[in-house]
Amino acid sequence: xxxxxxWFPTLRGAIMKPMNQLILVFSxxxxxxxxNMSYGAENFYRxxxxxxxxxxxxxxxxxxxxxxxFYLKDQNNNTAPAVVIGHPMGxxxxxxxxxxxxxxxxxxxxxxxxxxxxxxxxxxEPRNAVLPDLYAEAFSAAVDYLGIQNITSVDRERIGGLGIxxxxxxxxxxxxxxxxxxxxATASMYDMGTLARxxxxxxxxxxxxxxxxxxxxQQRWAEVDxxxxxxxxxxxxxxxxxxxxxxxxxxxxxxxxxxxxxxxGSTPELTTHPTLSTYTKxxxxxxxxxxDTISPRPMLFIAGDQAHSRYFSQDAYSRAxxxxxxxxxxxxxxxxxxxxxxxxxxxxxTEFFQANLA
Length: 358
Hints:
This protein has one domain (19-356): Rossmann fold (3-Layer(aba) Sandwich).
C-alpha cells in the first residue's frame, strides 16, 4: 500500500512518487518551526466541566458512524440545543472536531463530533475511501441520533451543524436536503469538488484532470485484478526541501505533536491519504449548487484573512441567500482555525447558535 503527497493543492500526480523519494527533510530549525504551538494551539483540549463519551449510530444506508457525544456535567436533564460537528477532510474527529465540540459544550450545547464514513472509527471499506454523498449522510444520521438518544435531553427542533475544512462542503450538501439542520456554520471551508476539478487556485488544467481520472480508472482495474489499494494526496509524511507553503502548513499540524493522531487500525503513513481509485468521486461533487435553497435558515462562513482556502468560503457566501454572514479572522491562516483557540471565534459561534437555535 503506497501513499503520496499532493493531496490538498491539486489532484495532479495522482500516481505517487515512491515514499523513499520523500525522506529528505528540512533542518532542525525547520523541524522546530513545525511544532509551533503558538496562539493557543490546543487540538487535544479537555474540559473538566464537560462529559464526553464515544457513540455509534446507523445511517439511512445501514452503515455505522462513530462519534463522540459532549454535554455539560451539570446539565441536569435540561433540554439543550445541539450541534453536529465534522472534521477536516483526511482527518478524524480527534483532529479539530472534538475541540470545537468541547468548547461549544462548555457553553451549554449538546454536541456530537463525527468520523466521516471510511475514516477513523466509522464503518466503510476500503479505509480512507471517498464518497461525498455518504459523508453528507453522516450529518443527517447524527441528527437522527440526537433526536432519539436518551443520554441527554435534546430538542429536535434546535439542531445545527458545523463543518471544518472539507466537512463544510459535506454539511452544506446535507443541509440542502435536511431542513432539520436549523443553522449552518463552516470554518476554513474547502470545496472538495472545485479542488478536484480545478486544483487549488485554478492550478489544474482540463487535460491534467483527464489524466488524473484516467490514472484513477487504471488503478481500479489493478484492484479488480487483485492488486493492492493505492493512496493519493494527503499531508506529506516527510517535509521535503521543496515543500510548498501550503504543504508545510498541513505538515505542521498533521505530522507533529500539535495535531497528529493515528486511529486504531491505521498507520502514521496512511493517515490523511485517501484512496487513489475513489478520490475522483469528488469531481462530481458540487456542494454550492443550490446553496440558496437553504434559506431562510442562517449560514455563517468563517475564514482567516491569510487563508489560502478563503476563496471557497467567499464563493459559498456569494451564492447563499440571506440570512448569511461572512466572518474574516484577522491574522489567521487555513489550519489556524483547526486548533488555535486564541484565533478561533468561539464567542461568535456561540452567539450564532444561541440566536438561531433558540
